[in-house]
Amino acid sequence: MESIIEIGTNGFWKNRQSPKQSLERTALLFNEIKGETIIEIGTGIQGEMSGNSALVWAKNTAAEKIYCLDLEDKHISEVKEATQAYKNVEALKIDGLKFLKNFKGKIDLLYLDFWVQDKEGDISGTARAESYLKAFLLARKKLNSESMILIDDTDHIDPWKQTLIVPRARKDGFNVIHCGRQTLLKRNK
């Protein structure tokens, strides 16, 4: 059966699937590559349709460090409360792009799910497309030779989160593993 996602007049999905399967598959692949560090930009515990990725990473990976970043106090508080039993999770109220710029370690999984407001007059999604590419460029040399990038909400019309980052990451040796509700890119050694 074909999976069809209808788009409303506002350019957003009418009906869509949970990202749970994608998140769990990504966690499995993360463990297979013996990943150590996850950076999640845009975090929160927002229910089944959002996937609660911070909990998926905490419960299903052997990550040594999981950085959950957001600019909203509410989202940081949700993650801190939900993951208090997991000492490898650090929820920080910080701009993810600034964090990437200053991060000194290596990254095994970069998970992107943050929101950027478009400029007046731009086509809806332009700012997200540009910001996701910027996140990749900041993380590019910090991503391990075998690493992954997971992008949420890629079941949307272009321009959107995946529009610029996917072609650029592919030029840098990343392959698309799956796409739909989320897009997973993986680079092998």
TrEMBL record:
It holds the Pfam family Methyltransf_24. The keyword Transferase applies. GO terms for biological process: methylation. The keyword Methyltransferase applies. InterPro entries: SAM-dependent_MTases_sf. Keywords: Methyltransferase, Transferase. GO terms for molecular function: methyltransferase activity. This is Class I SAM-dependent methyltransferase. It comes from Aequorivita antarctica. The lineage of its organism: Bacteria, Pseudomonadati, Bacteroidota, Flavobacteriia, Flavobacteriales.
